[in-house]
Specification:
The protein is α/β, with parallel strands linked by helices and 195 residues long. Helix content is 60%, strand content 14%. Strands 2-3-1-4-5 form a five-stranded parallel sheet. The protein is globular and about 40 Å long.
Length: 195
């Protein structure tokens, strides 16, 4: 793998909670120079910067509601237009969550002439991620609560996986094994995208 790759890569990373996405994103950023952007970080940044969309998102969150697609899509579009992403590419974590958001993302990137390269799905069996999350020992991480979150993830993400698969963009990565083994598998796929 070349350390200074000049091609900008625009990827989405998917995977159940506890699949190791965060850890692998850090390593991918180090290896390929892309920017890791999570939905939560984007929302917080837009709110902190006081952008029009950030203020709108803040008002919605303060009311206890979910931020609608058009606001999230606008915040993502603002983030993707920033110089660091334009220059280095991006790995998106937590966006898109729905086929509607995925289509909006594809349209955003196509309009800049830098298409979406693919979606990496870090596949770790449910029982394994439950075990990992229980080991973290967080107070709200009871097995029942974890299973509910995972069920919600499955129901929300299944149509999204199909959307990427239908377009030939979905790459499933075996998330079992050591951190290094999983990273090597991810690199093989990213190198394939760059080839």
């Amino acid at each position: 793998m070349e350390p200074d790759i000049v091609t900008t890569v625009h990827l989405v990373i998917l995977g159940r909670q506890g699949s190791g996405k965060g850890t692998q994103c850090v390593r991918l950023v180090e290896a390929y120079g892309m920017v890791h952007v999570s939905t939560g970080d984007m929302l917080r940044s837009a709110v902190a910067a006081g952008t029009e969309l950030g203020r709108e998102a803040q008002a919605i969150m303060d009311a206890g509601d979910l931020v609608p697609d058009e606001v999230v899509n606008g915040i993502v579009a603002e983030r993707l237009a920033m110089p660091d992403v334009v220059e280095h590419g991006v790995i998106l974590d937590g966006f898109p969550r729905t086929p509607v958001q995925a289509q909006a993302l594809e349209d955003m990137l196509d309009s800049t002439g830098t298409p979406l390269c693919g979606a990496l799905n870090l596949d770790v069996p449910v029982d394994v991620v439950i075990g990992r999350m229980l080991e973290r020992g967080r107070v709200d991480d009871t097995e029942e609560a974890i299973r509910l979150r995972l069920d919600l993830y499955e129901s929300e993400t299944a149509p999204l996986l199909s959307w990427f698969e239908d377009r030939g963009m979905l790459k499933v990565v075996d998330g079992l094994g050591s951190e290094e083994e999983v990273f090597d598998r991810l690199c093989t796929l990213v190198d394939g995208v760059l080839a």
